[in-house]
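Dear V.,

Thank you for sending over the compound details. I've combined the ligand you provided, magnesium ion, with the protein sequence from our construct and run the structure prediction for the complex. I'm sharing the raw inputs here so there's no ambiguity about protonation or stereochemistry in the SMILES, which I know was a concern on your side last time.
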Amino acid sequence: MLLAIKNLSIHVSTHIEKKVIVDDVSFNVGEKRVVALVGGSGSGKTTIGLSILGLLSPELRVTKGAIFFKKRNLRSLPEGAMRILRGKEIGMVFQEPLNAFNPVFRIGNQIDEVLQYHLDLSSKQRKARVLELLDIVGMKEPKIMAKAYPHQLSGGMRQRAMIAQAIAGNPSLLIADEPTSNLDVTLQARIMDLFKELKDKINLSVLLITHDLGVVQHLADDVVVMKEGQVVESGMTESILTKPGHEYTKKLMEAIN
Ligand SMILES: Nc1ncnc2c1ncn2[C@@H]1O[C@H](COP(=O)(O)OP(=O)(O)OP(=O)(O)O)[C@@H](O)[C@H]1O
Ligand SMILES: [Mg+2]
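Below is the predicted structure of the protein with magnesium ion bound, written out as structure tokens.
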């Protein structure tokens, strides 16, 4: 198993409140699987994604459970090792693609930074690799795109560039938080196809965080349905969507039909 989340609980504690936001959650992500984490707003999806990467904000704390990635419990990994793991073994795409790129640097240079940090390549090799990555994510003119600044790209192209950056260090797992939510329907479909392709092209597993069961239906092999911090059901997408065992899943499905 590539990723195994076991009985994970996360609490928030501020001067205003103390509460459980992830409650005894368990699920797995296998090799070359796309696993969707679905559920309504505030159900704890993003929090789980951030906890895997060790990026929870200070008021949030993992209080119970384990996060096994390639059999190592990430909870006991020191920060230095986590820093290497992020980007190299686990890639990430956050919700806001415009914010994730620095507006004053060219796209190609920002992807190159990841290569410099994580891989031992000559500058010539890195240049070639940047173009290769832009090509992998379906950009037609990699050379021109590499030279562009973030604001010069369309939303769909920027999202592709983000994915190129996220896979630059050759991760085996990509965590993608609402990767298509800002895109129109046609672009959404293209990005979904891209994820499917990457699975085979670069042996990537994806933990796809979304509230959109339409996306799940098209893309995910497995699905984990969350409600208010708890898993209500999980299993293969086909069986969950054809025979939802829980009222909440049925409700989510009504929203797409
Ligand atoms: N830093 C924080 N301080 C206080 N509460 C927080 C913090 N981060 C998250 N929460 C709370 O934890 C719960 C889960 O939040 P989370 O962002 O994980 O939900 P989500 O499923 O990703 O929702 P969405 O679909 O809206 O992105 C929410 O009730 C949220 O308000
Ligand atoms: Mg979220």
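A first observation: The CA atoms of residues 35 and 128 lie 31 Å apart.

Warm regards,
I. M.
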